[in-house]
Amino acid sequence: MLEVKDLHVHYGVIEALKGVSIKVEPGQIVTLIGANGAGKTSLMHAISGIVKKTEGEIIFKDKSIFKSNAAHIVADGLVQVPEGRHVFPGLSVYENLMMGAYLRKDKKNLQDDLNKIYERFPILEKRKNQDASTLSGGEQQMLAMGRALMARPTLLLLDEPSMGLAPILVKEIFSIISDIQKGGTTILLVEQNARMALSIADYAYVLETGKVVLEGPAKELANSTEVQEAYLGGSAKK
What is the pTM of this model? Predict the structure, then answer.
């Protein structure tokens, strides 16, 4: 569904991505793990059309999106939930969800999809008339995910969905991510909580200083001594 080939991204003289190549197959959860500054968010933003690419190629559903702008990429079915959630303050929960469907042409199905979002996130229905900025961190994360799902993505990019959340909410968010995959949406996940990310992913890439240094099936990487020592706090729990 997605193939990134030899991707380079610069911020001025700083090279954030140094020839990154990854693949995401339909129906998978693929996770990117690595320390802060490794290039994970830069890669997500490059795929989404938010930052300019220096060289390389990005193929989504057999079509190059390397030069596409963010709006066209969303319309094609590739949608990102940004790090930090970024809900629209001053708009209600309902209005935020409707913003997710802004580019959709099939308006007649919006209510059905909204009902599905409310079924998956019941708290959003309870808070539908509330200003989105007054929600808790966990509720805002659910809103950001629900807003993205209203665009009917075929590939969902999730950037640090558990950031700043209490441990009990982290488990709930990861359970929701698994449910979204089971519903037929392919997912590319960036996550600092490497243990949780590897536990639900099919395949994983490890980024360091703008390069892929390890890749493989998620369970294999979770059992790798190198990954355990660098990202899992020592021996993996059985």
Answer: 0.91
